[in-house]
Amino acid sequence: MAEAKKFDWISLLVGFVLIIGGIFSLSNPLATFLTLAIMLGIVVLVRGIMLIVAYFKLENRTGAKVFFALILGILLAITGVIFLFRPLFAANIFAFVIAIWFIVDAINNLINADRLKPAGKGIYFLSIVFNVLVLFGGIILVLHPLIAGLSVAVIIGITLLVFGVNHIVLAFMGKESA
């Protein structure tokens, strides 16, 4: 039986939506990152509410007092509300966490760089150079935290563009039907 290929309108539509999203992300990286911060706020708020509800369900069924879940739920809910109403604050916190991670990891790798000496002088030297760059990158992120957000927004924009083009190409290849 011969197979016919049909034009995939859904892939074309998805491709265009992804490309529009990519263009928006690249043209407005701060807005993209703030949108991600708001989405994170929603997720954290919902998770906090879920923990609070789970605490009361557990207490009603078993009488157990699982205060940790309640406290964590309350803290998450408060954090979610703060992130929703102060997305720039959420973006800064995210950037500071990344910066601290980079700094601590780079210092740890520099302290332990001598373990790479047996692999050769080139690997040892390259490790030191890369870890010094990561250390400087972490320090820069502490001083200018929105750089992390802008970088994430650019990566998201490029990814959306690539996926969009991919969907458009797939649309013209058609979907196979019997």
UniProtKB/TrEMBL annotation:
Origin organism lineage: Bacteria, Thermotogati, Thermotogota, Thermotogae, Kosmotogales
| Top-level taxon of origin | Bacteria
Q: Which UniProt keywords apply?
A: Membrane, Transmembrane, Transmembrane helix
Organism, scientific name: Mesotoga prima MesG1.Ag.4.2
Q: Which Pfam families is this protein grouped with?
A: DUF308
The protein's name in its UniProt record: Acid-resistance membrane protein
Which InterPro entries does its entry note?
Answer: Acid_resist_chaperone_HdeD, DUF308_memb
> GO terms for CC?
plasma membrane
Signal sequence range: none
Q: Which residues cross the membrane?
A: 7-27, 33-54, 66-85, 91-111, 123-144, 150-173
Q: Answer whether the UniProt record assigns the keyword Membrane to this protein.
A: yes
